[in-house]
Fold this sequence. Notes:
By secondary structure, this protein is of the alpha/beta class. The protein has helices spanning 27-34, 88-100, 110-117, 123-134, 138-149, 151-175, 182-216, 230-238, 281-293, 312-321, 360-370, 373-378, 387-408, 413-431, 437-444; strands at 5-8, 17-23, 35-36, 47-55, 58-68, 79-85, 104-105, 218-224, 256-262, 265-271, 299-305, 326-331, 349-351. It has three domains: 5-121, Gyrase A, domain 2 (2-Layer Sandwich), CATH 3.30.1360.120; 126-213 and 384-444, Four Helix Bundle (Hemerythrin (Met), subunit A) (Up-down Bundle), CATH 1.20.120.430; 217-377, P-loop containing nucleotide triphosphate hydrolases (Rossmann fold). Helices cover 47% and strands 18% of the residues. Strands 3-4-5-6-2-1-7 form a seven-stranded mixed sheet. It binds guanosine-5'-triphosphate and magnesium ion. Magnesium ion (MG) binds at residues 230-231, 243, 251-252, 271. Guanosine-5'-triphosphate binds next to helix 8.
Amino acid sequence: xNDTIAAISTASGVGAISIVRxxxxxxxxxxxQIFKGKDLEQVSSHTIHYGHIVxxxxxxxxxxxxxMKAPKTYTxxxxxxxxxxxxxxxxxxxLELVLQKGARLAKQGEFTQRAFLNGRIDLMNxxxxxxxxxxxxxxxxxxxxxxxxxxxxxxxxxxxxxxxxILTNIEVNIDFPEYDDIEVLTNEKILPKIEELELDxxxxxxxxxxxxxxxxxxxxxxxxxxxxxxxxxxxxxxxEEKAIVTNIPGTTRDIIEGNFVLDGIPLHIIDTAGxxxxxxxxxxxxxxxxxxxxxxxxxxLFVLNNNEKITKEEIELLHQIKNKNxxxxxxxxxxxxxxQIDQFDSNKIVWMSIKNHKxxxxxxxxxxxxxxxxxxxxxxFTYLSNARSISLLKKSYxxxxxxxxAIQKNIxxxxxxxxxxxxxxLLGEIIGETYDEELLDQLFSRFCLGK
Length: 451
Ligand SMILES: Nc1nc2c(ncn2[C@@H]2O[C@H](COP(=O)(O)OP(=O)(O)OP(=O)(O)O)[C@@H](O)[C@H]2O)c(=O)[nH]1
Ligand SMILES: [Mg+2]
């Protein structure tokens, strides 16, 4: 970490401005050697200077240079950013000059890695930065900003504080026992605190479902027998002719995907091959694909034809999805009703006629209710949403439940203490208080160059 790193921080390609970012002890002196304008070694921190990048006597570009001195910078090191005219050749040349003068090309995410290793941000903030970059909806942006700003980390800090409080309690009582009987200590004093912590963890875990939904969207699968109007529904939702629609059963053979955003939550919709027994090899594979997707989906839209009696296959399918989040879309209500509906849960039914553009609003409303989307806007977006942190919190929660059992069984208090320390460490891993190098490499390799 003692060397000075440099990279192009803006997206590659042609743009109005490109930025070459340099960070490290030599950042200012390196840029100063190729900059014609003010002496950058003499300027105050957090100032911008007009001048030229020159190589011997040739002017490479007219630039603005920002000088930011440690420690109040992104990496907590000296940073210089050269704002060049955004052409590919120019920016590349400027970067080459910086490298010639002694900087090393930064690896992906290395600026952010330095910010982490220098202690300016924790691992959750790091994930937040990545999520802000990837955010494509307003809700995702809000979620990511809370991660980046540390609000989400505070959830973990407060859990850790509670663990420490319990540990202190145990130690004080071991050193200066007010109680002669250790069982009284554990059961009366520690147990309620453990239960409180357990509830806190449970709540954060439950709410992380919302976090995951905001981040990953709702995986939605449209299934049903052939010709009921599945592809027509997909097209209507996406407001484009994405899938081919014909009156020939078996039109869709492979899966067709599309995205649309409902109340800020992306729905990834998959239209599938109509489910039926078939001898056609391609269609057969398609049908199997549809069935395999059921388990991976958050929401199943099961489409039926209002005009036809229910088939044995459809009843089987209904059985297969009964433990999932599903809705029953009864399409073609413009035709005579021949479908028996007594076996369906009436709350789950949406009546539709794509031909008459009817039922779409009801469908959206039902999805809103099912996933409580209206409530998301009212909350403050402080949710765990990354798989890594959620799985560590789950581990901590499971461990804590074991601790509770142990206390109830009056296991010696020093054993309990060891387990609580492990929980404290696990929670620490979420924010990166402890980490292994492999995890860091994996995390930062997902960043762009120059970030
Ligand atoms: N009358 C009527 N016809 C409809 C309605 N919705 C779709 N259709 C027609 O039903 C036929 C089948 O529609 P698709 O959307 O291709 O049906 P699908 O379920 O995707 O069929 P496969 O891909 O073969 O499984 C087409 O001719 C549509 O125009 C509706 O609400 N009413
Ligand atoms: Mg289709």
